[in-house]
Each structure stands twice: as C-alpha cells, then as structure tokens.
Automatic annotation (TrEMBL):
Name this polypeptide is given: SDR family oxidoreductase
Gene Ontology MF terms: oxidoreductase activity
Entry similarity comment: Belongs to the short-chain dehydrogenases/reductases (SDR) family.
Oxidoreductase among keywords: yes
Span of domain Ketoreductase: 4-181
Length: 224
C-alpha cells in the first residue's frame, strides 16, 4: 500500500484531520487540502502529508489540487470530499452572505471535488468518500445547512451511478451528533472525529468487489 494516495478536502480539523492521521497510519500517502494552511502544516508534521491550500468553492483551486497531487504522486486512490461549514438555524438568522458561502462550500465544493478528481479515480479504480450528515436524511427546523446535506446525500448516489461500471466505489458517511469545538449537544456522549474516521477507513478497506454505499453513524443514545 506504500504508493497509494489518499486526498482529503477539508483536512484541517475534525473528521478530515482524524481521517488523515488514520490513513497515514494505514500506509497511505496523504494529501491535505483546506483553506487553513497553518493547521494543515501542523497536521503534515504528524502524517507526512502534502499540504495544498484549497478553497473548494473555487473550481480552479480544486483542479490545481488534483493536478498537484498527480504531479507529486502520479495517482489518486481515495478522495474524501469532506469540506463543509455550518450556519445558524432559522431562515431569518445569520448573515445571508454567510449562508450563500455555506451553500457554495457544502454543495458546489463537493461537486467540484468529484469533478476535478473523477478521471484520476477512474484510472486507479479508486474510492470516493463523501461526508453528509444525518441532517441530510431528515430535515431540521429552519436549517439551510440541512438542505445542503440533503443535496450532498443525493449527489453521492448520483456519483455512484455515474461511476458505475468503472471500478470506482462511492461511500456516503452520514454522522449523527459529533463533538465539535464551540458547539454543544444535549447528549453527554457524542461521537468523536476518530469514530467517524474509523468508519471511513472501514469502507475503503473493503475488497474491490464490495461497494459500501452509505454508513449512518449515531451516538448510542441519540434518538433520531
């Protein structure tokens, strides 16, 4: 596995960073992409990863990310489209400009990541992993964020169908309540980023004929 390449868009913290650490431990060469270069460089010190500053809302930057990876390593085996941001609930809450940026990041950013890496994934018969949310399966009151995750959930199935017959596998990861800095949950025992990273690594570790299309992960105590 020493030559296999694991590209993570949205690697600077949380699920992306945890997955980078676990992928490096599993023997992958990791590519770390996000807007926050300082966090990526700290992570690269621990994983040996290639740092590429990338705003997934700008297609030219995502295209450059794919090219830089191919120039450096010659292949891409796993793409983790994990970039995403939140927004306050309530259609009159928050700043409309921030809401627009969230839609661009959460929806267009996933599309851009798929498009820019599709040819490389077909060449390697690789694996596309996409982060959605339980909020992409049931609507949350007043939540535009939830609406973006519904779009991501649909996009994952659309991508699976588009890649069908090419050998590329597609997995949607839909977490429930996950421990997030600066955000509180009503449950004491929520999921950690490492919990979700283990689910990602489980999916990509399956043999080539097994396509694990969706993993929904909740804390044991979460009701819905």
């Amino acid at each position: 596995m020493d030559d296999r390449v694991f590209l993570i868009a949205g690697a600077s913290s949380g699920i992306g960073a945890a997955t980078a650490r676990q992928a490096a431990e599993a023997g992958y060469r990791v590519v770390l992409a996000a807007r926050s270069v300082d966090k990526l460089e700290t992570l690269a010190d621990k994983t040996g990863g290639l740092v590429v500053q990338t705003d997934v809302g700008e297609y030219a930057e995502v295209e450059a990310l794919a090219k830089r990876t191919l120039d450096q390593f010659g292949r891409i085996d796993v793409v983790f489209a994990n970039a995403g941001v939140g927004h306050p609930r309530g259609f009159e809450a928050g700043d409309p400009a921030d809401a627009k940026q969230m839609v661009i990041t959460n929806v267009f950013g996933i599309y851009a990541t798929i498009r820019a890496t599709a040819a490389a994934l077909r060449a390697s018969k690789g694996h596309l992993v996409i982060t959605s949310s339980i909020a992409g399966r049931r609507a949350l009151k007043g939540s535009l964020y939830s609406a973006t995750k519904f779009a991501v959930t649909g996009m994952a199935e659309a991508a699976r169908q588009d890649f069908n017959g090419t050998g590329v596998r597609t997995t949607l990861i839909s977490p429930g309540m996950v421990e997030t800095p600066g955000f509180s949950h009503e449950l004491d025992n929520v999921l950690t980023a490492d919990d979700i990273a283990r689910a990602v690594m489980f999916a990509v570790a399956q043999p080539p004929h097994v396509d694990l299309n969706e993993i929904l992960v909740r804390p044991t105590a979460q009701e819905s």
